[in-house]
Amino acid sequence: MAEEQWRTRRGGVETALRTSAVWASVRTLIERQQAELGRPLRVLDLGGGTGGLAVPLAELGHDVVVVDPSPDALASLSRRSAERDVADRITALQGDADSLADLVGDQPVDLVCCHGTLEVVDDPEATLAALAGVVAPGGYLSLVAAGRLAVVLARALAGQFAQAHTALTSADGRWGSADPLPRRFDAAALQALVEQTGLVVEDVHGVRLFSDLVPSALIDSDADRIALLELEQVASRHPDFGFLGQLGAAVHVLARR
């Protein structure tokens, strides 16, 4: 990645520490899908909020439906898409997983994204079933959910050993009653949940392996951020040390119908 590109899009989905690895996988996938289909994709983003993923996808020429329960988030999405001149390719709908079938209709969805949402829904299994139900034959699900081991390590490094122990042994991966997340997932358990829907998992990897643990003062420069992103990319895919992916603050699953 050229430093000039980083400087111009430093806060963009391509370069932000929290989104870069996921975006790289999603972009590779959609480029392959578009080549196979010979047309722009129809994408559904559940819990897409203000458009952090939807807007970049629309900028690449794809049609994106964002379903989110928050009217404020959808209003921000509408403003953002207008500012980036992609409003004609983004449809913002208020709803949740229970209303997906009615909102999407019978049009095929080539890619369904559910990033940072499965942790907070009432019923993860029902949500995944609803998502799988709108994926077209040959289409994909991109699922990103919070991972357990990252919070165990973070709590331990903070000296909160009892909380780390609770997060490691609890059924929901939470470190206590004050934990802001309702649940976290192990990679194997998340893969099993996806496979229960009938989708075929093609890839599972951890993201944000180190970035949530590194003090911000150590990644203050563009060069440091680039180096960290490159380290995380290599570590998550290393043939001998792939277990490092288990430390990711999130787990990214790609599955196909």
From TrEMBL:
**SUPFAM superfamilies xrefs:** S-adenosyl-L-methionine-dependent methyltransferases
Q: According to its UniProt record, what is one Pfam family this protein matches? A: Methyltransf_23
GO biological process assignments: methylation
Q: Which GO terms describe its molecular function?
A: methyltransferase activity
Keyword vocabulary terms for this entry = Methyltransferase, S-adenosyl-L-methionine, Transferase
InterPro entries given in the database record: SAM-dependent_MTases_sf (IPR029063)
The name under which this protein is listed is Methyltransferase domain-containing protein
The species this protein belongs to is Pedococcus bigeumensis
The upper taxonomy is: Bacteria, Bacillati, Actinomycetota, Actinomycetes, Micrococcales
